Amino acid sequence: MNLTIDIGNSRVKTAVFKGTVISEAKVHEAFDLRKLKAVTHKGIRNVIACTVKDYPAEWKTYLKKNFNFIELTDKTPVPIKNKYATPHTLGKDRLASAVAAHSIFPNKNVLTINAGTCITYDFIDSKGVYHGGSISPGIEMRFKALHTFTGRLPLVEVEEKISALVGKTTKQSILSGVQQGILKEIEGIIQEYKKSFNNLQILVTGGSSAWLKKHLAAKINMEPFLTLKGLNVILAFSHTQQKQ
Questions:
Q1: What is the 3-state secondary structure (H, E, C) of the chain?
Q2: What's the rounded Cα separation, in Å, for the pair 157 and 59?
Q3: Could you give the residue range(s) of every CATH 3.30.420.40 domain in the chain?
Q4: Nearest to residue 73, comparing CAs of 59, 60, 91, 57?
Q5: Apex 78 CA angle, 111 and 71, nearest 5
Q6: Looking at the domain covering 2-105+226-243, what would its CATH class be?
Q7: What is the pTM of this model?
Q8: pLDDT (tens place) for every residue of the chain, 244 residues total
């Protein structure tokens, strides 16, 4: 069995795979060595991890000592062609998501949208070439920025219901600006990609993906564990490369 670990800015996601099938997946609000040991239970032989930040050396020591461990870097072999101009600066979660997208839709153009702390857009074409994308603030970051960088605007939290376009109070105005703004941004970017690329598939993942699924007008495919699935594909590919 394989264990994949996606260490994000706000949460840690883990999944245990039997082949290509997830048998256990968890989202951790807090994650330490004790929790790491808990998810690496008996039967797991291979572990791969990606992170958007540094993680403790003791985690690496534990994983290297007890498992066949791969830390995803820009040097790790992957089953797609990476045309990003600065691969060493590319978020490894973005790379793993692109790999997963190509494995799900191998002969189609795919735009992945990861709606987490940031909203990342990544494009991989029908030939398996990753081109890059864009990054913008996530929904919670936008609320916090309005509160932090102004004198009197309150801190507002996301609501399931979309606020009216014309806010009648300051809270409603913030909700309208942030939530309506994100939806129009995403829908606009999707339309721009569709103008340039035929037969485009949209894959949405991340903490805000369920909220987006409810409110986006565009047809999308929701894949909550996209990055974890990409990590598992990379792990299998690495083993194939080692045997050659």
A1: CEEEEEECCCCEEEEEEECCEEEEEEEECCCCHHHHHHHCCCCCCEEEEEECCCCCHHHHHHHHHHCEEEECCCCCCCCCEECCCCHHHCCHHHHHHHHHHHHHCCCCEEEEEEECCEEEEEEECCCCEEEEEEEEECHHHHHHHHHHCCCCCCCCCCCCCCCCCCCCCHHHHHHHHHHHHHHHHHHHHHHHHHHHCCCEEEEEECCCHHHHHHHCCCCCEECCCHHHHHHHHHHHHHHHHHHC
A2: 33
A3: 2-105+226-243, 109-222
A4: 91
A5: 105
A6: alpha beta
A7: 0.91
A8: 999 999 988 889 999 999 999 998 988 888 888 888 888 877 899 999 998 888 788 888 999 999 999 999 999 999 999 999 999 999 999 999 999 999 999 999 999 999 999 999 999 999 999 999 999 999 999 999 999 999 999 999 988 888 889 999 999 999 999 999 999 999 999 999 999 999 999 999 988 888 988 898 878 899 999 999 999 999 999 877 666 5
Q: Distance (Å, rounded) from C-alpha 213 to C-alpha 63?
A: 36
User: What residues are annotated to the active site?
Assistant: 93
Q: What are the CA-CA distances from residue 35 to residues 8, 26, 43, 206 (Å)?
A: 16, 11, 17, 21
CATH number at 109-222: 3.30.420.40
Residue with tokens 């494995």: 103
